[in-house]
Amino acid sequence: MIFVEANGAKIPAVGLGTWDLRGRTCARAVEQALRLGYRHIDTAEMYDNEREIGEALRASRVKRGDVFITTKVWQNHLAAPEFERATKESLARLRLNEVDLLLIHWPNPLVPLAETIGALCKMKQAGLARHIGVSNFTVRMVGEAVALATEPLVTNQFEWHPYLDQRRLVAETQGRGLAVTAYSPIARGRAAGDKLLKSIGLAHRKTASQVCLRFLVQEGAVVIPRTSKVERLTENIALFDFELSDAEMNEIRKLSRPTGRIVNWGGAPEWDD
Fold it and tell me: What b/e readout covers 108-138, taking b as 16+ CB neighbours within 10 angstroms?
């Protein structure tokens, strides 16, 4: 496994995203992923699956210290007292004393960022999170968060795949010393049928989705593709036995568009694009 390092954190470069996985389906997928060699599981308060993820972690018999667990505090719980309560409730559902990474899931313009960042830092100081970071923060917000934080932030998690031009946000995030964690990294399945990615994959005996994920890894990202299928779990982690050439990377970069965003809703910030 390759790791992405940032501000003291060593984050496995490939993790399992668990958005929209619930109940036994979620528990089975996470347990299978851990048995296959995954060492990074991404969840959130809002996903309503933290309990199942904790169960799967224990059932897998993988040592707790070998698995990097990320969870996130929901947008409605960013005021300081609610933030602490939400964090403790997540830990109770996971049945863990601490998570490896705690994130602000989405910024909330109705709560001062200074208050939320202060609460986030307090969770690290209290030993409830080994590392802290943000998610869905824009270029401006990343700079503000870093300036406000009294503890190092280690990542900004946001949508990134070859169809969405995120150059400014990637440069700002990495330039501030944070890792980029890319969610929806295969564009919710779009990459699997892409002609260019398929063509490049043929040369490496890899699938289009593997080429897509490898592209992001070579760009320095942590990727957290979501799936519940064993064959996809196996496929998505088999990224470290090939390398894309500079020419192939440049061809894939040409797929990006400012209009390529998939995840957008009423609670999202005003995006940089």
Answer: beebebeebbebbbbbbeeebbbbbbbbbbb
Residue 246 domain flag:
no
pLDDT at 1: 82
The pLDDT of residue 109: 97
Inside any domain, residue 45 = yes
CATH of the domain at 174: 3.20.20.100
Per-residue three-class SS string for 52-81? HHHHHHHHHCCCHHHCEEEEEECHHHCCHH
Residue 64 lies in a domain: yes
Which residue from 64, 74, 15, 23 is spatially nearest to 39, judged by alpha carbons? 15
Q: How many structural domains are present in the chain?
A: 1
Query: What is the CB neighbour count within 10 angstroms for residue 171?
Result: 12
Q: Tell me the C-alpha distance between 96 and 222, whole Å.
A: 23
Domain of residue 89: give its range.
9-187+221-227
- What's the rounded Cα separation, in Å, for the pair 91 and 109? 26
Q: Is 80 exceeded by the pLDDT of residue 251? A: yes
In a domain? residue 4: no
Which residues are annotated as catalytic? Answer: 47
Q: At what angle do helices 113-125 and 139-148 cross, to 10 degrees?
A: 50
